[in-house]
């Protein structure tokens, strides 16, 4: 347990009905006693007056005491719930500092919860993800991660790996023998199952990461094709100025929308075209830069033709381009979504709204949300990265096994995979990684 006591205002800055100061650490009983003037019964709401050292009134409110280890951090925790005014909160904070607490760093309460074994690392991250959720679906998925759904999947995977490794390592005790045929086929089958389990978790984690971070969709295409109109139709606002004059959208416009819980960051670009106007040239330059970071490009045109070669070269090799054939109302065509050799093509009218549902459905499918993600969980790039690295070790183990490499080499790859997967829940996590994770939290969490 850590020796010092930390304090922070846990409610957001500004004025609110209630403001909460949270204290964690060994000085909690004394601090409670000094501020309330009496000892506080554990786990009960105790109404009282919060006072300065000289007895001056700070606030009246409710004190909650959670003695260690049954608290969020696993230490003694005190919550002082007062009136949510910035000066009141500041006075209360100062009083706690005066009584020996020090200001908490961002995420330090959750970090202590992790260090005291109340949460594993994936759960601790889910606390921040829950707070930062931008859609109701993200909240539900972060909730599942917080309750340990993701962690249990990883733990099961690691248990299987350990079993298999122990079995293989048992053969290492007989150095003259390599894995014989019978046990090799059992090991091959076990390893196949572990790889399949990993593949499944990777797919679900990818889905969780998309729901957490959203899909970055660039709207691009020649001037006057209807990009702004489509943006407005998708977002239901008049965020982009729609005008019939080519080249109006000179700057970038970003907009967060959601489609059935999938957050989508839409980036509307300047009409990408050659121009002598320096302002427009700048718009075109920015548009091209955005294209590189996209998960997906919606290429809007009145024809079914995609972007020309020079624009294609700016796109990341694996970034899909969906061709949106706009203004079908002018041609009397019906909306449709078709797969062609050149990729997906969606015919719609941004102005009338015909076919927008096809586009929305397609975006959901692209994000892997075709079906409702039952049992899904929130995940981060860090988790996907660990899963990918572990996956490569498993592939290497499979390769070694298939090519009759020594049992030792196979076991070593499995061991590496186990360590890498352990980074997700924090079983094997470098300190600097912990620092990076918790410093992105808000203060008081
Ligand atoms: P941008 O330059 O690509 O952003 O194009 P705008 O969204 O500003 O649209 C250019 C013009 O096309 C405007 O006059 C729009 O009203 C019109 N427009 C956009 N979408 C449609 C559509 O689906 N049907 C019709 N008839 N006109 C459209």
TrEMBL record:
Positions annotated to bind Mg(2+): 228, 249
Keyword Transmembrane among UniProt keywords: no
Keywords attached to this entry: Cytoplasm, GTP-binding, Hydrolase, Magnesium, Metal-binding, Nucleotide-binding, Potassium, tRNA processing
Record-linked CDD domains: trmE, TrmE_N
Comment on bound cofactor: Binds 1 potassium ion per subunit.
Domain of life: Bacteria
Pfam families according to UniProt: MMR_HSR1, MnmE_helical, TrmE_N
GO-annotated cellular components: cytosol
Entry binding sites for (6S)-5-formyl-5,6,7,8-tetrahydrofolate: 22, 79, 118, 445
SUPFAM superfamilies assigned to the protein according to its UniProt record, in alphabetical order: P-loop containing nucleoside triphosphate hydrolases, TrmE connector domain
Record carries keyword DNA damage: no
Binding site for GTP: 224-229, 243-249, 268-271
Domain TrmE-type G: 214-368
GO molecular function annotation: GTP binding; GTPase activity; metal ion binding
EC assignment: 3.6.-.-
GO biological process: tRNA methylation; tRNA wobble uridine modification
Cofactor(s) essential for the protein: K(+)
Functional summary from the UniProt entry: Exhibits a very high intrinsic GTPase hydrolysis rate. Involved in the addition of a carboxymethylaminomethyl (cmnm) group at the wobble position (U34) of certain tRNAs, forming tRNA-cmnm(5)s(2)U34.
Record-stated family: Belongs to the TRAFAC class TrmE-Era-EngA-EngB-Septin-like GTPase superfamily. TrmE GTPase family.
PANTHER family: TRNA MODIFICATION GTPASE GTPBP3, TRNA MODIFICATION GTPASE GTPBP3, MITOCHONDRIAL
Subunit relationships: Homodimer. Heterotetramer of two MnmE and two MnmG subunits.
Protein name, per record: tRNA modification GTPase MnmE
Source organism per UniProt: Thiobaca trueperi
